[in-house]
Amino acid sequence: MVKDENEHTGRRPVDQGVGEVIRQPNKIGVSTHYDFDGHNLSAYGGLFPVAIMLEKLGFRQLIEETLTVHRRTRAMGMYQFVLAMVLSCYVGFTRLFQMRFVKREPMLTGILGVSELPPQSTFWRFLASLHLGVARQLLAVQQRMRQRAWEAANVRLSSITLDMDTTVQTVFGRQMGARKGYNPKHKGKLSYQPILSFIAETREYAAGALRKGDRPDGKEIAAHLDAVQKSLPAIVKHVYGRADSGFYCREAVEAYEKKHWNFILVARKTARLVDELKAATWKPSPHTDADEQCEFFYRPEGWKKPYRFLAMRYRKESEEKEVEQYQLFATPEYTYRVFVTDMNDRLHILVEFYNQRASAENLIKEANNDAGLAAHPSNRWIMNANWFQIVMLAYNLNCWLQLFNREQYARVETMRHTTLAIARLRFLFLAARIWRHSGRVGISYSDHYEEKDTFQRLIGRLRGLTRGANGFTPVVATVLEC
Phi, psi at residue 346, to the nearest 5°? Predict the structure, then answer.
């Protein structure tokens, strides 16, 4: 037998697979065909996670149990009207007449379970039919939604920081309740001055209300703090409050002490306080940006007891103008920054802690510009007050989604806030096609979506929401805590 060496030692060729098909780029130009024959195409595919979250957390049940609406609706149910306005603000259409642009939007109408949205006048009449108590009821709905969202997202914050602030909203018509007040950009014009409080750790809107345009008085501030206390989840045991000089008053301090909350407030300029500052012992301030610092105990007129005051001063240049803001006040020689607090930390630590409150101003800008807080739908006070809470509910949807969408081992210190404008670009403005086959309805997204893995993780967590005897079972393994 002859042995062929080449036959037994040669390498056999490997089976070749089918070659990868190289996609050709789509060439779009002047002569490209176009038509309007596409069916069930949506530009807001990111509403799908919102719909899942609301359904799993029992949003409809909360609305129907809490809101007392006496008007009998025909075009849609009461819950559908409220949800349509909330989702419209979330999408970015913050005025009632703009809802005609999503009249037949398949994703929105599919969530609402209607073929198309009614005209603007129907929404306006529904909003006009709501009584003033609906604003408080919407706050109660948000409190219960926050409780459920924290349970399901495994948020265990026993201590939070509360940032309280106001914002000036200039009005140009004959709105009820508009007043001339602190309005640095449009001096002398009528305005509203809503009061809002945010939870610094999660950036959630805790409580607030539409107000007339002048500065809130002590009773209003105390009532606002009561509303904030009711809006907090049961797990919160302690609160640290921060506020500017607009909230510097005896009633605010007593409200904090009554609730056993710590506080740091910017002091307002008075003649007696200026005399105390002149008589105080000043020393260099190496750990702050001030030239000198001091601290002393002082009892303002009408207050029950002395409190700890922290002061910093800056040498005033001759050409400097009078400072016009809620943190500083000036004398001919110095510009002062003064705080009153019941905390015992060192001065520079408390000043640094207060400086972090600047994020609250950014959150108010987000609510005004992105959520539509300043887009008052009417000159009627009750309508605007109820719209205020609808807009802030839309704002909170973004905050709750971020709690479910956070990284596995994220902490409060490292978790970054994604504004509503950025969240729309990343997760909301998502092209989708809604299809129906054999009685099933589905949604198809583009295979080029860059955030596909993050989106699928969010959907998986939201679909896994279950409610037990003791509340919702966490869908995020790690606890979010300070």
Answer: -70, 160
Pinpoint the alpha helices (H) of 157-198.
Answer: none
User: 3-class SS at 172?
Assistant: coil
Query: For residues 197 and 216, is the Cβ–Cβ distance under 8 A?
Result: no
Length, in residues, of the chain: 482
Average pLDDT over residues 211-226: 91
Give the pLDDT band of residue 318 (cuts 50, 70, 90). low
- Give the DSSP letter of residue 427: I
Q: What is the DSSP letter of 322?
A: P
pLDDT grade for 320, boundaries at 50, 70 and 90 = low
- 106 Cβ neighbours under 8 A, 6+ residues apart: 40, 41, 42, 434
Return all residues near 459 (Cβ < 8 A) that are at least 6 apart.
48, 49, 52
pLDDT score for 448 = 87
180, 186, 191, 193: CA torsion to nearest 10? -100
Q: How far apart are CA 194 and CA 388, in angstroms?
A: 9
User: How buried is residue 454: exposed, middle or buried, by Cβ count under 10 Å (0-12/13-18/19+)?
Assistant: middle
On average, the pLDDT of the chain sits at: 90
* φ and ψ at residue 61, rounded to 5 degrees: -60, -40
At 148-198, the pLDDT tens digits run 999 999 999 999 999 999 998 888 878 888 888 777 777 888 888 999 999
Q: Where are the beta strands (DSSP E) in 87-189?
A: 159-166, 169-170, 179-180
Helices (H), 302-427: 347-355, 358-366, 381-404, 420-423
Query: Cα separations (Å) of 122 from 118, 150, 237, 291, 389?
Result: 6, 35, 44, 61, 20
Are 385 and 210 a contacting pair, CB within 8 Å? yes
Q: Nearest CA to 250 among 265, 271, 229? A: 265
Helix (H) or strand (E) holding 284: strand 283-284
User: Which amino acid does the sequence have at 207?
Assistant: A
Q: What is the pTM of this model?
A: 0.90
